[in-house]
Amino acid sequence: MSDSAASEVVIDIRRITKSFGDVVVLSDISLHVNRGEVVCIVGPSGSGKSTLLRCVNHLETIDSGEIFVMGDYVGYERKGDTLIKLSEAATSGRRRRLGMVFQQFNLFPHKTVLENVIEAPMIVNGVSRTAATKHALELLNKVGLAFKQDAYPSELSGGQQQRVAIARALAMEPDVMLFDEPTSALDPELVGEVLSVMTDLARGGMTMIVVTHEMQFAREVADRVMIMDKSKIIEEGTPEEVFEHPKNARAREFLARVLDSSPAAAQPAR
Fold first, then answer.
1. Burial zone of 68 (CB within 10 Å; 0-12 exposed, 13-18 middle, 19+ buried)
2. pLDDT digits (tens, 9 = 90+) for 68-118
3. Region 227-256: what's the mean pLDDT?
4. Which of 162, 168, 172 lies closest to 196, judged by CA?
């Protein structure tokens, strides 16, 4: 990442909180992500990782604090000291800057791979079918699935479906990609093909926030790693700082448990 890219903050999260009823899910969370940076968020289940990602995309609303994407609120605009909720159309317009890949693939089962990828650019962005198809085929080639363009989701493996989901998100030409545990629904032998695509995206300069339990990926690909626990960020730093020299006792306990349970995760791939 260049110095000029590093100076441009594209995601700016300022002291946000979020509760579901009496359960506090996010407590005083602050985070910024620079253009071209890859930030991996790890931590135990229920620590607030996925909720944080959904708040960035305004799929969940925050109780307090502020989230800016490219300098703008996603679901609101400020008038004086008051935040005014935007219309769904205006919110969707700002949300286009963010591509999101979920745990489940959420492909349209009645549409082919190609149709899944061209749908949003045509309907949301008004791109012609010819242009959308050309770009979709480029993206499918990028994720290694151009030969499956006429297949239906039911004819694909889980790893292939997730790669189509990545291509579909990229088709909207987002500034930032958000990944919410993208390999958690996959059989172990299919995880690598999805992580390979994500690694290529990172090396190509895509700004990414990745919620993951894949420690080796976080260690090798992330610029920064954050550990969340019980609604808070308890550790933050470079992969070396977090994995080799964690300062927080709870972070050390978490890492000892997950790395010991997955020996391959403790060593970079060779």
1. middle
2. 999 888 877 778 777 788 777 777 777 889 999 999 999 999 999 999 999
3. 96
4. 162
N-terminal to C-terminal alpha carbon distance within the chain: 23
Q: Report the C-alpha gap between 42 and 227 in whole angstroms.
A: 5
Look at the block and give the residue holding tokens 């349970």: 261
Q: How confident is the model at residue 261 (pLDDT cuts 50, 70, 90)?
A: low
Q: What one-character-per-residue DSSP string does 78-114 give?
A: EETTEEEEPPHHHHHHHHTTEEEE-SS----TTS-HH
Q: In terms of Cα–Cα distance, which of 233, 206, 231 is closest to 222?
A: 206
* pTM, rounded to two decimals: 0.90
Under a CB-based contact definition with an 8 Å cutoff, are residues 162 and 194 in contact? yes
Average pLDDT over every residue of 191-201: 96
- The torsion angles phi and psi of 47, rounded to 5 degrees, stand at -85, -10
For 2-52, the DSSP string reads -HHHHT-EEEEEEEEEEEETTEEEEEEEEEEEETT-EEEEE--TTSSHHHH
- Nearest C-alpha neighbor of 91 from the set 107, 117, 69: 69
Q: Which residue has the tokens 């499956």?
A: 148
User: How does residue 262 score in pLDDT terms, banded at 50, 70 and 90?
Assistant: low
Average pLDDT over residues 35-41: 97
